[in-house]
């Protein structure tokens, strides 16, 4: 299975789980991020052995990791803000 298909599958699973509560959504996003990194590990090893195409796949995958990281940061900030607002209402 190609790297792009694996990444798309991970994103689809995350979108399905996105309807969960904040805590579960954050954990789901974290698991997605870990899965993306695991998928990339094989291509990183290939690139180290000199396979240039694997390096291209790694860089593309790292852009997806970067995007997922930004989404995770956004989710955690929103959850923290929501919790802070809930405490201030009490």
Biggest sheet details: none
Radius of gyration: 16 Å
Shape: elongated
Distance between the termini: 51 Å
Helix/strand order, N-terminal first: HHH
Roughly what is the average pLDDT, rounded to an integer? 84
User: Number of domains in the coordinates?
Assistant: 1
SS field, number of helical segments? 3
Secondary structure: number of strands: 0
Proportion of residues in β-strands: under 5%
Helix content: over 70%
Question: Spans of 5+ residues with little confidence (pLDDT < 50)?
Answer: none
Structural class: mainly alpha
Question: What's the short story on this structure?
Answer:
With 90 residues, this protein is mainly alpha-helical.
What does this protein look like?
The structure is a single chain. The protein is elongated and about 60 Å long. It is 89% helix and 0% strand. It has one domain. The termini are far apart. It has helices at residues 3-17, 22-48, 52-89. By secondary structure, it is mainly alpha-helical. The longest helix has 38 residues, at 52-89.
Search tags:
single chain; 90 residues; elongated
Topology:
Blueprint: H1 3-17, H2 22-48, H3 52-89
């Amino acid at each position: 299975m190609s790297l792009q298909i694996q990444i798309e599958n991970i994103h689809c699973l995350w979108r399905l789980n996105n309807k969960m509560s904040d805590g579960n959504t954050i954990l789901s996003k974290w698991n997605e991020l870990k899965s993306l990194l695991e998928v990339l590990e094989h291509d990183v090893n290939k690139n180290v052995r000199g396979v240039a195409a694997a390096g291209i796949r790694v860089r593309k995958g790292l852009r997806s990791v970067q995007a997922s990281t930004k989404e995770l940061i956004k989710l955690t900030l929103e959850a923290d803000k929501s919790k802070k607002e809930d405490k201030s209402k009490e």
